[in-house]
Amino acid sequence: MLLFARLTQILNGRGWGESNMATSAAYQPQLELAKDAALKAGEIIRSYHGTGREKHVAVKSGVDLVTEADTRVEKMITGLIKDAFPNDLIIGEEEQAGSPNGGQGDPFPKDRCWCVDPIDGTTNFVHNYPFVAVSIGYLEGGKPRVGVIYNPFTDSMYEASEGSGAFLNGKQIKIDSDASSIKDCLLVNNIGHYRYEDFVEESAERVKKWLKAGLRGYRASGSAAQNLAHVASGQVSCYYEHGYGGPWDVCAGMVLVKEAGGVVWDARCNETELEMRFGKGSVCAGGRAVVEDVLKVAGKPTFAFSVSGGK
Ligand code: LIP
What's the pTM value of the predicted model, to 2 decimals? Predict the structure, then answer.
């Protein structure tokens, strides 16, 4: 039995003792930098709270907002990364809004790369609604390897690196393994920034389908990163969003959910792991069984994200 367990670990690319530690150590510098940057970002974000300056917004498009804090935090994080890893690529939400590295659906670079959302949940931040998260992911070979999500208002630091498990404020976390169907699922489902009639209709129809199938609980937080962190810590069972804003919303959270024992699938295709691509995307994350049921009841989304990002 012991031999079988050991063999399974080796086949899964994980060992005991030294080899497991080697996997964690491989990304330790990136993990430490991401946590440091997230804490510093948190200080800046909190400094805006209640001053009225968090309400000074510019509109990126439609109902998609950006604040002075978003740009200031992104610059600070980018600076720290550049100092420590001058050759790495950095993809930050706000800079990409001005000069995108890729169009809708384009694949992510395979180089060493960072993907940063300075404030995920900008609308929440503007309204002082505390689901606000700094999200920092690190990728190699186009795959997220390190993920740090920090909520400065609840002082919750979620961290994970490939092969090392996921942690909330230093304690190991796991997904909600009790939920196996829609009936015992607490589902969080953001409906992003699109306001086109067919998008709104399709999103509302999907919610109706879940409710009619007996969904235990429905929530929407306004922060994709916070949702993924909540899935990783088992505080919600599943997160679904067709039309999240960009790869920076989900990059760090992907590592967290996978390291906490869950799956992160593209909600448009069955059993397909989400790929890092530019532009809007579609995600369903949680324990495998509950994700399967949530997707089965929802059916395939048909609203397509256009190449220009709009419609
Ligand atoms: C937002 C996400 C939210 C999603 C929006 C948007 P922002 O990011 O966190 O979950 O529904 O489409 O991407 O704009 O707050 O950084």
Answer: 0.91
